[in-house]
Amino acid sequence: MTNVAIAARLNRMPVGRVHRQVTAIIGISQFFDLFDIFLAGVLGTVLTKEFHIEGPTLSLLIGSAFLGMFLGAILLNGLADKIGRRRAILFVLLIYSVFTFISAFSTSVAFLIAARFLAGLGIGGLPPLADTYLSEMIPAKSRGRMIAWAYTLGFCAMPVEGFLARWLVPTNVGMAGWRWLFVIGSLGAIIVWLLQHHLPESPRWLESVGRVDEARAIVEDMEASVGSVGKSEEHASVSVEPRKVPLSTLFHAGFAKRTVMLWGFQILQTLGYYGFGTLAPIVLASKGITVTSSLTYVTLSFLGYPIGSLLSLPIIERVQRKWIIVGSALCMAVFGILFGMSRLPLWIIVFGFLYTLSSNIFSNAFHIFQAEIYPTAIRATAAGSAYSLSRLMSGLMPFILLPILKVHGATAMFSVVACAMVLIMVDVGALGPRTSGRALEEVNESLLADASSTGPSSSG
């Protein structure tokens, strides 16, 4: 048994207790990460009044955490390829928890902007790192479904945050209600630290850095916990040789097309996904809707996040990930424009709900997809560097979309978003590889060998 490739042994396991544990723990960490990401958007109109800000300062407040995420996604995911997935996860949780807690005690807008930037370092590091870790721990045939379950748990943060904001913002118990939302958001790291002994290191990563005995020991524990293993699949019998893989591999033959596709996707998807989630309350305020009413409408719209994530479960392993991304991007383009045009509360809620529902089918598919298309040795670095572009664009997004909203209105703003979604459809549909149900080694290792032998692509 110990002579069988690590990947083969991982892929032929049935989903067992250890797989469900790591999925749940990553889901909990994602809950608080997503809770934190959307805080500035949910509280945008509240903080505008609290600190008497407007225009560029409001854009900077909303964008500060995203700019921190840009750096965090690059630096901390690169660190994960060196120190391991588990240690990196715990480190990023510590960073965002500390600075989110500090945000609760901001005395000025400058203080809050700085704290949100520093919290963003940890927030930006977690999603691609979580994608990488789960993709390496879960059997190929169940990879999409289990990662989707983790995100379903994580996306419950949005409606929970909306209901808490609706309840806490008008209160003042010891301190202003909005400050309590930051305190709540900081609790995630404490919970995950208490559960950390249930997070084993990735055997695939251990094998890729030559720590094969440790990898085998973890796999043996996993096999013992599931009680039985299935038959080894041919494509899963690939061994991963320990090797140093330079970052330039992203632009070598075979991977260059994937890199261009993913980088273009990450730059554009921000306008659609976070353009709604962080700016919806401000869009409603521009329509003359009060803070209290807008929080209610946004909360009901945010119910689409976990429901959309749940709806992705039946299709995530049946339909190619790339086509799920294309189809859901089309829905986001249509529902965004309809949301921007809506004036009546019923239609605002309906189209907001349909938008968030579509966006989380979209989100689940791309989070799984981005971790499947690069080899183990550079998986975290590759996913993190691509994801960092989305965080950079998220930081710039308020400076792009808010002026359009102010001058031309919500419909024009969502028309810009729709154009970005159409470009995503072309990008992923034309350049994205097929990954559903395939072992990570099947998708990547042969291309890595080709890249090592052929050198840089002339087109890359």
How many helices does DSSP assign? Answer: 22
Portion of residues in helices? Answer: over 70%
How is the CATH topology named?
Growth Hormone, Chain: A
User: Which second-level CATH architecture applies?
Assistant: Up-down Bundle
Mean pLDDT: 83
Task: Report the biggest beta sheet as strand number plus sense, adding barrel if it closes.
Answer: none
Sequence stretches where pLDDT stays below 50 over 5 or more residues? 232-238, 456-460
Intertermini distance: 41 Å
Evaluate the radius of gyration: 22 Å
What is the general shape?
A: globular
SSE sequence, one letter per element: HHHHHHHHHHHHHHHHHHHHHH
According to CATH, what is the class?
Answer: Mainly Alpha
Q: What is the beta-strand fraction? A: under 5%
- What would you call the quaternary organization? single chain
Count of discrete domains: 1
- The helix-and-strand class reads mainly alpha
Fourth-tier CATH superfamily name: MFS general substrate transporter like domains
Written account of the structure:
The protein has about 450 residues and is mainly alpha-helical. The protein has a single domain, classed as MFS general substrate transporter like domains (Growth Hormone, Chain: A), CATH 1.20.1250.20. Helices cover about 75% and strands about 0% of the residues. The protein has 22 helices and no strands. It has helices at about 5-10, 15-35, 40, 45-50, 55-85, 85-105, 110-135, 145-155, 155-170, 175-185, 190-195, 205-210, 210-225, 255-275, 280-285, 290-300, 305-310, 320-340, 345-370, 380-410, 410-430, 440-455. α2 (about 15-35) packs across α9 (about 155-170), α14 runs antiparallel to α21 (about 410-430) and α16 (about 290-300) packs across α19. It is globular.
